[in-house]
Specification:
The complex is a heterotetramer, with 2 copies of chain A (355 residues) and 2 copies of chain C (325 residues). Chain A is 44% helix and 12% strand. With 355 residues, chain A is of the alpha/beta class. In chain A, helix 1 packs across helix 11 and helix 2 packs parallel to helix 8. The termini of chain A are far apart. Chain C has a 7-stranded mixed β-sheet with strand order 3-2-4-5-7-6-12, sandwiched between helices. In chain C, strand 2, helix 2 and strand 3 form a beta-alpha-beta unit. In chain C, 74% of the residues are buried. Chain C is 36% helix and 19% strand. The longest helix of chain C is centred in the N-terminal third of the chain and has 15 residues. Chain C is an alpha/beta fold. Chain C folds into 2 domains: 181 residues, 3-Layer(aba) Sandwich (Rossmann fold); 126 residues, Rossmann fold. The chains are: A alpha/beta (355), C alpha/beta (325). The complex binds thiamine diphosphate (2 copies) and magnesium ion (2 copies). One magnesium ion binds next to strand 5 of chain B.
Chain lengths: 355, 355, 325, 325
Amino acid sequence: MTTAAEFQIEYLQYLQADGKAKSDLPSFASDETLMVNLYKTMVQVRAYDTKAIALQRTGKMGTYASTLGQEALSAATGAAMQKDDVFAPYYRDYAAQIQRSVSMLEIYQYWGGDERGNCYQNNPHDFPMSVPIGSQCLHAAGAAFAFKYRKQNRVAVTTIGEGGTSEGDFYEALNVAGAWKLPVVFVVNNNQWAISVPRGSQTACETIAQKAIAAGFEGIQIDGNDIIACRKIIGDAIDKARRGDGPTLVEAITYRLCDHTTADDASRYREDNEVTNAQELEPIKRTRAYLTDVGFWNDEKEAALQVECKKNVDAVVEQYLNIEQQPLENLFDYHYAELPANLVEQRQEVIEGSL
Amino acid sequence: MTTAAEFQIEYLQYLQADGKAKSDLPSFASDETLMVNLYKTMVQVRAYDTKAIALQRTGKMGTYASTLGQEALSAATGAAMQKDDVFAPYYRDYAAQIQRSVSMLEIYQYWGGDERGNCYQNNPHDFPMSVPIGSQCLHAAGAAFAFKYRKQNRVAVTTIGEGGTSEGDFYEALNVAGAWKLPVVFVVNNNQWAISVPRGSQTACETIAQKAIAAGFEGIQIDGNDIIACRKIIGDAIDKARRGDGPTLVEAITYRLCDHTTADDASRYREDNEVTNAQELEPIKRTRAYLTDVGFWNDEKEAALQVECKKNVDAVVEQYLNIEQQPLENLFDYHYAELPANLVEQRQEVIEGSL
Amino acid sequence: MNELTLVDAVNQAIAHELASDPDVVVFGEDVGKNGGVFRATANLQDRFGENRVFDTPLAESMIAGLSIGMSTQGLKPVAEFQFLGFIYPAFNQIVNHAARMRNRTRGRLHCPIVFRAPFGGGIHAPEHHSESTEALFAHIPGLRVVIPSSPVRAYGLLLAAIRNPDPVIFLEPKRIYRLVKQDVPDNGEALPLDACFVLREGSDVTLVSWGAMMHETLQAANQLSEQGIQADVIDVATIKPLDIDTILNSVEKTGRCVIVHEAARSFGVGAEIAAQIGEKALFSLHAPVQRVTGFDITMPYFKLEKHYMPSVEKIIAAVNHTMEF
Amino acid sequence: MNELTLVDAVNQAIAHELASDPDVVVFGEDVGKNGGVFRATANLQDRFGENRVFDTPLAESMIAGLSIGMSTQGLKPVAEFQFLGFIYPAFNQIVNHAARMRNRTRGRLHCPIVFRAPFGGGIHAPEHHSESTEALFAHIPGLRVVIPSSPVRAYGLLLAAIRNPDPVIFLEPKRIYRLVKQDVPDNGEALPLDACFVLREGSDVTLVSWGAMMHETLQAANQLSEQGIQADVIDVATIKPLDIDTILNSVEKTGRCVIVHEAARSFGVGAEIAAQIGEKALFSLHAPVQRVTGFDITMPYFKLEKHYMPSVEKIIAAVNHTMEF
Ligand SMILES: Cc1ncc(C[n+]2csc(CCOP(=O)(O)OP(=O)(O)O)c2C)c(N)n1
Ligand SMILES: Cc1ncc(C[n+]2csc(CCOP(=O)(O)OP(=O)(O)O)c2C)c(N)n1
Ligand SMILES: [Mg+2]
Ligand SMILES: [Mg+2]
């Protein structure tokens, strides 16, 4: 026997659960504006998220997928990207989307059953969140191809849950990204559960990061509740892609503190104490502890931030609840650039029927 | 950074191109009957294969996929399996199929455009060769599940080309096989080409074997033109699966000495000298050299074998050319256990139309 | 009395077969401990064990491909796709293998699989959760397509589907999963897989539908009855193979037909039924066959989905139009 | 004169667009150096470079998914599936994304993709290489389905498909890839994507077909003409959206219609055409609309495939039957 190939998967954590640094921090960790902005995004998203659930419970929104406990990863992802990059998110990446100028209102609209929530007035290129699991990874690879083809200095970033990594599309995207050295970053939110299926039942892999080995490029595992590790590693991966050095797979270990969606009842399949334990590791508390430690934050600022976030959300809710109904012709008018004959008739029928 | 996981991919070769042993051989290598039978199978398959191409060229068969130069891997696969195991082959594994009691006649029939070629009179369980690339890997995993479910001591083996490893189904099969520790062995015939697409364009992986790392189990790379390495490693993998120790991915490095199929013209996309070089490594010559060296073989035996193989093939061709046409009702009678009403009518129409 | 909703009847049928046939295995995403996102497999893992009822990794082609491998070994997979909108990654395995294995091997191997999936709109679900694409499967030789519209039929048809030696796409109209309860005795009696159900008799017009739309169709029939128009109401139930004779018999009697389905109109199942009526009962027709269906558009997000769905009013309007001839 | 076969016309159209639009990229399995297994992309890589014309890894969902990502960035992918029978792994991407992106984003993103695939039987190919499943795509809102039946139409329709801002399933009838040559000037003139072609005029019966079957249909029309029966012959060509008006106009004139397609009959494209004729031209019909199609079976292995295919004789028999009313 000879050795044909060897691989290592690294794990990175900077901040322990108590917010204390485990090792030397990257320089951006002492950039107050940057760090505070990340924190603000997380807190804002949590307020937005809590409200979304409340809206659903009171019948003012459809099924909603919460991001509770996974805000750091998503905030870091959004922050690490540049405006012209393209994001192909799955459905728990509001923190990233919001940083990329998708409005909270649009996200509410989306979950409120209104396609206009995908219009992204201030973001022309990002994909809407993808519902068919795994499929978005290929869209990101395709966009990345376009950047490379046009010699643009742009990167595509896609996110997926650890459950989604069992889908063929995930692997096909990794494989082509590796084969063509595409400027794309794959971020896995390994939140331990795919609805009711635990991480351990999904795959025999020791790490999700090692799935990149099957595609011939680097995979790395990080603590996804550690905002510094997330920002650092995702940032590095994006830089690498932008330099033309190809794709990276980032596995971020988080925990889904919420039900899968508002249609789910996680108590049917998981133990309360698992959730309680996971709460100890959650990112907002941890980030706040760090910021407080280094003197970027205090209770006063926190109080002000809470008020501001609530105000922002209230304003968005106000708008959301008062949105005019979508014109019925919208049902027809966006299937093709030009309306085909059979739709002309049907369109008329709906418009007349609704008079 | 800490190391989350480490992996190695081993490569194994016993016989060099000249048939000389590189290292200590496994004990079966001195089992004359076993080794000679493997050789005979390879030579028989080559005769069968050459004839199939001739039949196609003279209009007596449809498009045909040759196995030229890949006989060792396939012969070893068939020999390593037990009768009750299940084989889910791709379309270049005649040597394995023939050892598993699929008749040469049936294989000719199949390529002659006759479904009865999949009837496998003497093999109730094996799958017909799968045309949609990659799909067969999941069938093998499913059969393996059935064995495990019934606590049977059986193993499923599936084969695929290296091009096929880019398909999502391949990966999904690996992943579930790993997650459920299924008794299944995946054998990749890495013959360097997927029609016109070279191995290097298919994936950035250093080895195909490492794709198993994405599914959390062992992958190993072997010289697929080395009958001893093939028989040893595939045999070990099957034993391991039978013991309940889960799946293995075996990457066997071969070379497609033929065109992709008779419908292909490989000179359009690959260099002659690549083929000439690869001829030096081909398995029949190598096996014969080894057998001769250890005294199991000589020119006389060879001459007799050639005569016998030709005779066998001629007899099969004779049968093949004289097969009665399939009854037309066969077109209808096997879609459902019971013929539905609409097919009764259509069936009648065909039978009457053909009178 | 054993009053069950449709989804409970599904559960009861699966449980019945799990109990009576050790070859039956039940799997899919979240069907185990969670009992399915609609609870169709609730408690089955507890009752029959993790080796009979289990979750798979998240991969639909895998679910179908495994089913094929299992079934050729004699197991009887009852595999769930969480929603019909997520069956497409499995399309290759279903169309190119499950549907063909028997024919390809001239009966040597076959695939006694039930592919279950909740389908249809009207429950305010997110995108991809409200599809009605039964026509895609109906076109594929070798498949059966079955759609129950009541608890009793869900139980009897699902028993039949599980026992059937060929692959069955079993689509469950989730809008009516919990709409009504019926007495569904757990008697193990299957219903035929090749016959429509005549739910109501009348001589003026034939109403043909299936799935959740049966309810609007029956309501329309009741209101029409008050208007003095008596409808034959047919639940197609077994979309493929299609029992066209029951439909033709009715149309020959009534001379008028309205087909109701939720799927997009063009190239839908209604087209085949209308085409066959035109072929075989043309001269019985007093009026053109009408289709009341979804529009030829993607199922809208839920805010506007009601504008997509065929309504009782539209069915009545179509019948009235038909009566004008 | 520029005498081309259908497959060469495909090549010429792709080359024309590669030359005139830098956003056009051509890819698939073996389309590069090999020029496609049917030579549809022969020499294009040499002429336009490896960055414009290239092979992909072997994965169809990937081919479709990449196309979606590329096209939302403004590229115009012309992606090949090697055979229609291998498009199914991509079904999810095509149905759930390509077809929906424009509608889902209310026009913000859209997918100007051409998915090409050779299709149909009659060339003695192995299993899965002879499919005719255009109906599956025709049912999906947001897709266009286009099928040329001559070199001239292949060129003009493919130009239109590549320029069209929405996803087009472009199915090439490979049985007639090299059947005839026509003068196909490389003039860059596209044909409309929403109109049938009337290939022959007559007042006795309407023959409707598409793809390779146009040839049998035209032959039948010629033979019928000798019998004194004059047929309108319509090449549907753009299956979706369907130009039903041209068909209806003809049927209103002739009162008789025979639809010919190679795909399995049930739930095929013919059903929709027949249904619409029944809906909109019922009282013009002198005879039931007939369908001459493949049987409701899996495409047989090639030894028996000719028994599956609609023949000139069957078309004539159907017309004669139609004339008896
Ligand atoms: C192709 C497909 N199959 C099934 C589903 C239904 N579904 C939605 S979310 C989900 C679990 C996803 O788990 P994971 O990928 O871990 O992401 P998480 O929700 O945990 O963030 C499933 C099965 C889907 N949306 N798409
Ligand atoms: C799903 C699918 N896509 C495409 C094809 C067409 N096709 C047949 S063989 C082949 C190449 C296979 O290459 P590889 O897997 O390396 O096997 P090899 O033929 O080299 O043994 C292709 C693209 C197919 N049969 N199935
Ligand atoms: Mg998860
Ligand atoms: Mg190969």
